[in-house]
Amino acid sequence: MGTATARANANIAFIKYWGNQNDQLRLPVNPSISMNLGGLYAETTVTWDGALNTDSFALNGKEESGGGLERVSTHLDVLRARLGFATRARVESANNFPTGAGIASSAAAFAALSVAGAAAAGAQLSERELTTIARLGSGSASRSVPTGFVEWYAADTHEGSFAQSMGAPEYWDIVDVIAVVSKKHKDVGSSAGHKSANTSDLQGARVAGAGERFAICRQAILDRDFATFAQVVEHDSNLMHAVMMTSRPPLFYWLPPTLAIMEAVRQWRAEGLRVCYTLDAGPNVHCICVREDAQRVSDRLRASSDVLDVLVASPGAGAQVTTVSIP
User: Residue 307: what are its φ and ψ, rounded to 5°?
Assistant: First the structure.
């Protein structure tokens, strides 16, 4: 049928997604807000080929089998069902940042897979529908489809839980300075963590207050109010990790350097730097700051012997098709 390549950025959630009201459809228990990370992307090529008997998948140049291939093939089934054909596909994907380390590699990958798969079939799907399709592969992938600052709505139907942009990348000049303290693939993935969220005694309270935090964060972004933004972003991140740590069995994603950086960021803010922290399901710390303070934050992180690398990302664009060829 055709071949297409798409690129999608990772995203960092300011108001977190953790836990589903429907695991199969990945319908979140609360709305979330994120920012696409410009320059940290997955690039995925999908080739629909009638001569293939099975799907194949290569990640970062390595052929995948088992769970990785199964997850991709299951998502291709979603596209096949939506587009009305049974053709198998060859998928090749690569990330330019650590995979499975709390930098939303699955979000970028499934956003790119969804967009490339539809384009390779010649389908003209709306951005809204593409966010719902991407969500079925990885919940937060829905947020990597639209551009810039993105809000993702909780709903009890597939069509109702979609993501859309609330601001272009240039709307607010903030930067994510990521302190990489581990490049190891996490032992327990986010999909498993979402399923165990309700075993925490704290999840109910986290979800009950999520709507209010969502509204505060959304308005802070619209107002470019960093002080309010910093308080709600750190609080929401702490709540999510408290749920993780009190789930059964508990999930401990933090490492000793993680906590040290979190404490340092709060001290730097007290000293006048406009910076706050947030973490996804991993040990690496996202230090969100205004651009004027980004270099000082980066320099301080690089001075730590515990920091393996520092990645810097400005607000990024949505998922985009880069090449397409349909015979």
Answer: -95, 115
- Which residue, among 246, 326, 247, 263, has the nearest Cα to 300 in the 3D structure? 263
How many Å apart are CA 3 and CA 116, to the nearest integer? 8
Q: Is this structure's pTM higher than 0.90? A: yes
Structure confidence by residue, pLDDT tens digits, 206-223: 999 999 999 999 999 999
Helices (H), the chain: 66-83, 105-120, 127-137, 190-196, 203-223, 226-245, 256-270, 291-302
**Sign of dihedral through CA atoms 214, 174, 272, 309?**
positive
* Amino acid code (one letter) for 261: I
Q: How many CA atoms lie within 13 A of 71 on its CB side?
A: 16
d(CA 54, CA 113): 17
**CA-wise closest residue to 29 among 130, 152, 136:** 152
Separation CA 76–CA 46 (nearest Å): 10
SS3 142: helix
